[in-house]
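Researcher: I'd like a structural prediction for the single chain below. Treat it as a standalone chain; there are no partners to consider.
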Amino acid sequence: MARRRRGAAGRDEEFTFVSPVVKYLLFIFNFIFWIISLVMVSIGVYARMMKHAEAALACLSVDPAIMLLVVGILMFIITFCGCVGSLRENICLLQTFCVCLTLIFILQLAAGILGFVFSDKARNKVTEVIDRAIVHYRDDIDLQNLIDFGQREFGCCGGVTYTDWSKNMYFSCKNDNPSRERCSVPFSCCILSKDKVVINTMCGQGMQELEFAEAGGHIHTNGCIDKLVNWIHSNLFLLGGIALGLAIPQLVGILLSQILINQIKDQIELQNYNQNHRSDPWS
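Model: Treating it as a single chain, here is the predicted structure.
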C-alpha cells in the first residue's frame, strides 16, 4: 500500500502544468522577430555610419535610419525578454514581455483613434514633418531618396504646393541665393513622358518662377499632403488589413505569454505542495 502511494507521489512530481507546445511556440514566435530586429538594427547602424556627422546632427527628427534603429532596438529588447523568459520559464521576463506588448498595442490603438478624431491636428503635424524634411533634403541621402520616391509614386511636389521647395536653401527663390538650383524643384516632381528616349533631368529648373497653370505642364504642382490624404481615403480597407496584420502578432504574443505565465504559476504551486507534503508519513 505504501509502495503504491510512493509511486503515485512520484508520478505527481513528474507531472508538469507547463505545456511544451505553448513554451516553444512562444520561443519560436519571439525568435523570428528577434532576428528581424537584429537585421533592422544592422541596417540602421550601417546607414548611420555611411553618413557625415554634421548631417546626422542636422536632421535626427526626420532621419529614416534613426527611426529604424529605435524601432529595431526596442523590438530587440522586447523579443529578447520573450525568448529567454519562455526558455527559462521566467515569470518576470514573461510579464515584462507581456506588459510591453500590451502598452504598444494600446498606444497604437490610441494613436489611430486620436489621428481619426483630431485629423486636422494630425494633418498639421504631418505638414511640419514634411516641411522639416524639405529643409534637410540635400543633407541626408536616405531622406532625399525617401522624398523622391514619395513624389514619384504619388505624383506630387512639395507639402502643400510645389513652391514649398523654396524653404530649402538650395531651391530658395531669394535674390541672394547663389545656388544653380535657385527657384527649381527636384527631378522627382517632373511629369515624365514614356515616349521620350532621353530624359531631361533638369526639367525642374526655374519651375517656381512660373505660374501654377504654366508649371503644371512640366511638373506635378499639387502637394503631397492632399495626395496622401486622398490615397488614405481610397485605401482604407488596405490600411485596415495592415493594421490588423500588425495587431494579430501582438495579440498572439500577449495570449501565449499569459497562458505560459499561468502554467508556470500552477507548476510552482504544485512543487510547493509536493515539497510541503514530503514529510507526510502516508505519502
